[in-house]
Amino acid sequence: MSLADFLNKKPLYYKEIDYERMPRIWERVKKYFNLPKIIHIVGTNGKGSSGRFLAYYLYKSGFKTGHYTSPHILKFNERIWIDGKDIDDESLQKSHESLLSILSKEEADSLSYFEYTTLLAVFSMQKCDYIVLEAGLGGEYDATSVFDNILTLVTSIDFDHKAFLGESIEEIARTKLNAVKRAMILSMQEHIEVFEIAFEISKKKKKKIYLYNNFLTNNELILSGAFIKDRELPPFFYKNLTLAMSAVKFLGLNVDFNKLNGIQFFGRCQRIFKNITIDVGHNPLAAKALKESFENKKVVLVYNSYEDKDYEEILKILKPIIKRVEIIDLDEERVAKRESLKRVLKKLSLDFRDFNKIEDNEEYLVFGSFMVIEKFLKGFYEK
Predict the structure, then answer these.
(1) What backbone phi and psi angles, to 5 degrees, belong to 56?
(2) Residue 241 has what pLDDT?
């Protein structure tokens, strides 16, 4: 069976998750895996770009390096990046068939979409020296947390996925940070509670804890800022770059920013045309970062949201940079009800309309989720 057909039988989203299934199945099949050194990344925002900074740097330093990220935008292969490129179809299918031969039919069928693709990614990257493994929505109970690792990187932690992670920053931080197995490096944080929980867990579990600036010299911090500015990357990438470079130093390597020349970030505050920027973010912290990036500008926001996202708070944060909102249609049951979204837009006194086409004389920001970006790219931009 092809990977596409196999995955199409699995729902992408689950109202309830069996947290014991992945550890149980991994315990049985791990003897068939030869794990390289794994760097685990947990957090709310910046996991993808932090991971790509680190993976690209290790690759350019001569190490065979894999990077697992999710979800994808246009093609599943985007989730498994090895030595500078997405995995090819033939290698992906071969890994899928090999993995199915290891799993029982009951195990393969029971694994969730994300659980199976996580196993598939690690199986596909076994010959690497390093795997940079990005957690999904969680931490302690995330499918990526079953694998042993040498280091956990903690990006900015904020409110998101409250139904699964908790209602407070303390609960969310504890869930994510309980994934730490050996040592952790913390990025810059919006909430002091994250540091408090991190130090509590570090003391209780006797795990080493570092801050990103424990490793970087003042000159390296300055050069990090210069790199972001020179390449016209969004300002919030600075914290993700410094976290990645702290991991480089943790691994005993020197920092050479020339090794990052040529790096690309698909869908992360990416200008794809002279007047179009796309961003896969979908929570208040991502909105704050975009507000900073577009400071003193006005944009047409092409937007939609899932029902479980705090879209009122997101739109409130973005309001200073919004000229008007254009709602893009999404055919998915989790999407916010159109009338509810319109009610919020009216409450915030934001002009809005349905999205139909791009005008050459307007600046556009396409934002709201991976699905928003996928729909925009497939349905409009590619035309």
Answers:
(1) -65, -40
(2) 98
